[in-house]
Design a protein that fits this description.
The complex is a heterodimer of chains A (354) and B (254).
Chain A lengths: L12 H6 L3 H28 L11 H34 L13 H10 L8 H13 L4 H10 L5 H11 L5 H21 L10 H8 L10 H33 L2 H8 L2 H15 L6 H6 L7 H13 L2 H7 L5 H25 L1
Chain B lengths: L1 H27 L12 H25 L2 H11 L7 H17 L7 H7 L5 H5 L3 H5 L8 H9 L4 H4 L3 E10 L7 E8 L8 E8 L12 E10 L9 E3 L4 E3 L7 E2 L1
Parallel strand pairs in B: 2-7
Antiparallel strand pairs in B: 1-2, 1-4, 2-3, 4-5, 4-6
Helix pairs in contact in B: 1-2, 1-4
Classes of the chains: A mainly alpha (354), B alpha+beta (254).
Chain lengths: 354, 254
């Protein structure tokens, strides 16, 4: 064979060899499990052994509330994040490959509409969508179509819709504006980029090479092993963002004075701008961003909430970092400006109609 | 490089485990209500257990399933955000351990009451419509019901002869802190982040010598016109006795 060092998946030979004898694998698994159980036990011991004085260990009230608020964002969001990860593992690994792409309509316009609804079947938040969209492009989607999917899926997705409904109910049509707005913006972006003369220029040169060895094609490994690896990957991408986002949410709640928030929040224009900036910075997952922004619901106008809920899932610092793996910087700047303008218009419209 | 790779690879699982342990511990010791609405208890616990199984499976299976070489690149690309250098990761993990596993769980305090404005949220108060409340069984009324009635503008006549039994924590009144404090609770819709403070004013000159801010009290009293006519609150409770109590297991109202 002319491939001396690597197999089809691009794995170095020693890795394959090392995983070879079943006994060795079992040994390593047992050792790994032991490490896992040990870590879990240590964490439980810490929690049970640390004394919990009722008076908050002498912390100042503001510091206590910062901790309480941040912790509540984490505790509230975690189960939803885990649910998203479990579902995305199910869809990407346990469903037959290509099942979702096979029956797309031929007309580009209809194709994009169906693709933007694909999120309904792939309930992952935006961080999970980037690898998925890369996989879809490899499977034959155009760049514009993948953008439509990328921007629509985090909003038109059952978990996002449920959490938004839980947080806001039917108040002020926030839920409806979010769903329709997300759908329209994603399709508009898709339509605009479908008219690009050389769509390949939108992609980074490294992307083609990278997706050629993308995870979805490592089919020979056991499905359980791939599922577990995906869990490690997804938590690695989402947990730091969630924890940092929670801390930021707590700090803003405690540190920014009520007067500033109320002044900003009651102005139809500045409320939209302020919450879009916030969405860009906190980069919280679309699955749970409704819970995050709920606390602003009392002070900010509904259009600002809608702008936050539509803009955040599409563009934020974390998404730009993830998207940079696939799209050129110039494309991302264009996309950011375009989506920001659309979200601002949507927010202002809701504010003034309201 | 080795440490860096370990951190990058395992920080998500580490943070997950910290969150899982914190959730399970809060659930087992009955303290989840400090952070989230009771309707999420079962869902939260079930997902924590599922995630714990997956995390342990990651420890068991990941070493065997690792293909360091090509995977390494993918991870470098996927997670290279400004703040996420290894030091940042360690800091995040350390902060998560301190925040979720070391700090004692606690409710929100008077700091958040003043930050959010007592009785300032329409949604926390209007939900119980005053019409239904007016004819109800007053003995079962909560702080929230009374606060809603007071805010709905029912006058002193309406409150005459009615007796309230309320439990909450002590928050000073902004306009007349020497004489009036509020028996306060937070109304929670989803989780503590959206908590809105509501409260019933209590006239008790010199209360600050007896009760600390944030301490929990229960009292039974009739409503009276506020003796201090300059105060913003026109109708207040003037109790004979105020009993300090321990913080209830469900400190928030829903």
């Amino acid at each position: 064979m002319p491939l001396p060092a690597t197999d089809k998946r691009g794995l170095p030979a020693p890795v394959i060899a090392a995983a070879g004898p079943a006994g060795a694998v079992r040994g390593r698994s047992a050792a790994g499990l032991l490490v896992g159980v040990a870590v879990l036990t240590v964490l439980f011991l810490v929690r049970f052994l640390v004394p919990t004085p009722a008076d908050g260990a002498g912390m100042a009230n503001a510091a206590r509330d910062f901790a309480t608020l941040s912790i509540s964002v984490v505790i509230e969001s975690l189960p939803f994040v885990f649910l998203g990860i479990v579902l995305s593992i199910a869809v990407q690994i346990w469903l037959p490959e290509g099942l979702l792409l096979r029956r797309l309509p031929r007309t580009p316009f209809l194709r994009r509409i169906v693709l933007s609804l694909l999120g309904m079947l792939l309930p992952v938040c935006e961080c999970g969508n980037v690898p998925l969209a890369r996989g879809l492009m490899v499977n034959g989607l155009t760049v514009a179509e993948s953008m439509t999917f990328l921007f629509a899926a985090p909003i038109l997705n059952p978990i996002t819709i449920i959490t938004t409904q839980q947080a806001f109910g039917w108040d002020n049509n926030i839920l409806v504006a979010r769903i329709l707005g997300g759908f329209l913006i994603a399709n508009l972006v898709g339509w605009i980029y479908s008219r690009h003369p050389r769509p390949a220029d939108l992609l980074t040169p490294r992307f083609q090479a990278a997706c050629a060895v993308d995870d979805h094609h490592g089919g020979q490994q056991g499905k359980s092993a791939r599922s577990v690896r995906m869990f490690v990957q997804e938590t690695g991408a989402m947990m730091p963002a969630l924890f940092i986002g929670a801390a930021l949410a707590g700090i803003i709640q405690v540190a920014v004075s009520r007067e500033v928030l109320v002044t900003l929040g009651s102005n139809p224009v500045w409320s939209v701008v302020a919450l879009m900036l916030l969405a860009f910075v906190v980069a919280i997952c679309s699955n749970v961003d409704a819970f995050f922004i709920l606390s602003f619901g009392a002070t900010f106008m509904p259009g600002a909430i809608v702008a936050f809920l539509v803009f955040g899932p599409m563009i934020d610092v974390k998404m730009l970092a993830l998207l940079r793996t696939t799209f050129t910087s110039k494309t991302l700047v264009q996309l950011s400006v375009l989506v920001a303008l659309c979200a601002a218009v949507l927010g202002l419209a809701v504010n003034y109609v309201h | 490089m080795f440490t860096r790779r370990i951190i990058r690879r395992w920080q998500g699982v580490a943070l997950s485990l910290i969150g899982i342990v914190a959730t399970l511990w809060l659930g087992l010791t009955g303290q989840l209500a400090l952070y989230i609405h009771p309707r999420y208890f079962v869902f939260t616990m079930v997902m924590a257990v599922i995630a714990a199984v997956l995390a342990l499976a990651a420890f068991a299976l990941a070493p065997a399933a690792t293909d360091e070489h090509h995977h390494e690149k993918a991870e470098t690309r996927a997670t290279r955000w400004g703040w996420l250098w290894p030091a940042g990761s360690i800091l995040t993990i350390a902060a998560a351990v301190v925040g979720l596993l070391v700090l004692p769980p606690s409710t929100l305090t008077t700091a958040t009451v003043s930050q959010r404005g007592l009785n300032g949220s329409a949604s926390a108060l209007v939900q119980n419509d005053a019409g239904k409340l007016a004819g109800g069984d007053y003995s079962s009324f909560t702080v929230r019901d009374w606060a809603s009635l007071l805010r709905s503008g029912a006058g002193a006549d309406f409150f005459a002869g009615k007796t309230a039994t309320v439990t909450g924590f002590v928050t000073p009144d902004k306009s007349d802190p020497a004489n009036v404090f509020f028996v306060t609770r937070f109304v929670v819709t989803c989780c503590a982040v959206d908590a809105q403070p509501i409260g019933v004013p209590v006239y008790h000159p010199g209360w600050q010598n007896e009760y600390k801010n944030d301490s929990w009290v229960t009292l039974t009293s009739g409503f009276r016109p506020n003796p201090n006519s300059t105060s913003r609150e026109s109708v207040v409770l003037i109790p004979d006795t105020i009993t300090p109590v321990a913080q209830p297991a469900q400190p928030y109202v829903y």
